[in-house]
Amino acid sequence: ERITQEPDIQAYVTKLEEPLQSLRETQRSVATSDFDNAWRFYKNDSPLGDLIADSFLEAGKSEHVQIAMENRGGIRSRIEKGTITLEKVEEILPFDNHLASATVTGKLLLKNLEHSVGGSLGGRFLDVAGLKFAYDREKPYGERIAFALYQDDKGKWQPIQDTGTYRIAMTDYSFTGGEGYDFKSATDVSMGKEKLNIPLRKFFEAHPQISPTKSHRICAVAGTVTNYVTSDKPHIALDSVS
Length: 242
Known about the structure:
This protein is an alpha/beta fold. Helices cover 31% and strands 26% of the residues. The chain is built from nine helices and twelve strands. Strand 7 and strand 8 form a beta hairpin. The protein is globular, with a radius of gyration of 20 Å. The C terminus is likely disordered.
């Protein structure tokens, strides 16, 4: 604020910004309040991650997708209260990635959820849609997921079974091995042609007003709580959770 702008440099910057003006002026939705920008440190699901996963789930309906996931390292901006423009959509998911859809076994899905919660809370941690699970990072690998549930075609939450098959959607970056994920044995793989942020843009267009939600999909547990949720069929109680 104490330094006078250099006219030539300012004119140069203004010229470079011209192609962005239409993005800045094109509204796609409105946020009723801020989405927390501390999502990288959430031990549970984050409001912004939930929203992005929801957009992938909606986009994957034509591929019969039941579960959508997004690694937090791919999220590069936040949402503040007020107008959401096309520029904001580009900021949130700026990469030239695409949505991958595939069929996986429950065993493969659980293995990758183990990987999601086994490291730091940063880049590889997955936010999800169509899925609820609890995990205990103090447990050894292979035992961290206390339970995992998916929503069946009747809207009921059912346990993920090792031998069951499930249709998933996620960024092709993670699906093809980014952040150490391994979906090599997946079948019926389909790669979307649209850039990854197009499903997010379409989600905003279909929802002209959005609000951050409280965490309700992923829960970190430990000790006696883990013992309780693994032995007392928690999916019965979760059937009533929206």
